[in-house]
Amino acid sequence: MMELLAVLAIFLCVFSFSLAFPTINPESIFIPLVHRVRDDVSDVFQADSNEFPTDPRVPPVVTDQDAQAVLQDYGFLSSDDIINRLDQTTDSAKDALKRFQKQFNLTENGALDDDTRRLISAPRCGVAELNAIEDKWTKRALTFKINSFPRSVPQSEARNLINQAFKEWTKHVLLNVTEVSRGEADIYVSDEQKIHENRLGSECRFTTNTTLAHAFFPEVGDIHYNTDRSYTSEEFFSATIHEIGHTLGLDHSNSKTSIMFPFHIRYHTEIPEEDRRALQALYGVSRTTTAIPTVPPRTETPVPPLCSLHKFDAILNDARGQTYALAGDYYYPLRDRTPRGRRISSKWPKLPGSVDVAFTYRNNKTFCFNRNRVWVYADNQLEAGYPKPIEDDFPGLPGNLGAVFVTKQGNLLALRKKHYWFYSPRKRPQIGKEFPRFVYDFQGMPVNVDAALRHTDGLAYFFKGRNYHVLNMTDYTMGPATPMKRRWFAC
After folding, report:
1. Where do runs of H (alpha helix) occur along 271-403?
2. In the CATH hierarchy, which top-level class contains the domain 141-283?
3. pTM above 0.70, yes or no
4. Is residue 468 predicted with pLDDT exceeding 90?
């Protein structure tokens, strides 16, 4: 009897415990835990992994309003209902999502699917894709000054990491950056509130709670950390090396392996090859030896045949209606079926080779852009006072353009990589505040257009590589890529 009572007592004890403490399913606490971890930027990066912890079973909570705010803040969705393009068009949330998805190699369905939610909610740089304007420093010796530090990283450690991040970039290029503690500097580093001012007195802000930091392009180049965020050492270094890329002149990249990918989904401890090449294109390759190379005998480089060229720098019609293709140091008259190349300087005196754009404009004068300067020719004679900064003749228009198209009304559609500007000389300001915009506004428009031309036949041609596209001026859609040899020359 006593044994039976003992067994019964044990049973009642276990039963009571199970009522008080029911069995816990581990996944029932894992899911909310993941959301809390993602909301805490100090835990977003795991110390034992270089990958962003995205669990496919648990898509982050991103509402339509959240997505709209991010798309608007970073340039994919306009705050205006109607945007002035060449004519007028409207943006929709679905179109904006498609632009975002295309930019970052996601499925272009215009839906807020799980992959899109994960990327939208990931910690990122505060530089908007739309407003990123690449430029470079005009000098090779720069200084930076640290005005304040993030509270979550010890000052001595933060200083060492900032210096290390600068060195990682500059060891690959002809550029020297040193820290100063007194006086003026070229680049200022600081920890800032959500709403703050840059050194020019303009208001700037960290627009979303996922923003880690932002930076400015040359020749302002400051770096601001978000004071509301908590950084691990690894995350701080990764964010710093990314922002320094901006201060030295690099735009965002849509390659996930690049340091300049805007979303912080992995750590970087050194500069990937693609980023080294991008910076070397601006500043040249660092000299690794002091040996003087042997200078070979000078030989005359043969003129490359037109049919051997893979792309052109510019294509224009002159005041007489003649069409020329420019490539490197040579120009090719396209009236000839098999044109021979001639030195650019023989037709346009003092014009350097490898121009960015060339077009006929204003009283049938020829305008040629090279980086940030413009040359103007009347009857193939250089006008007095040229070359001069592009800004002097075309306020608000950036340098390093890929193509310029002249409309019938005398307006300019300027393109560079994935952005475009619309310049209206009769308006003030000549370029509206909504520009630059993405070329995706024009359905079928390729990125990195090489040249553009309004031809004597009245059609709008856009060239990339050895192909051309025709722009439909009614609905602003781009025709398919067509080999140039079918229309422009015989090869």
Report:
1. 273-283, 344-347, 390-393
2. alpha beta
3. no
4. yes
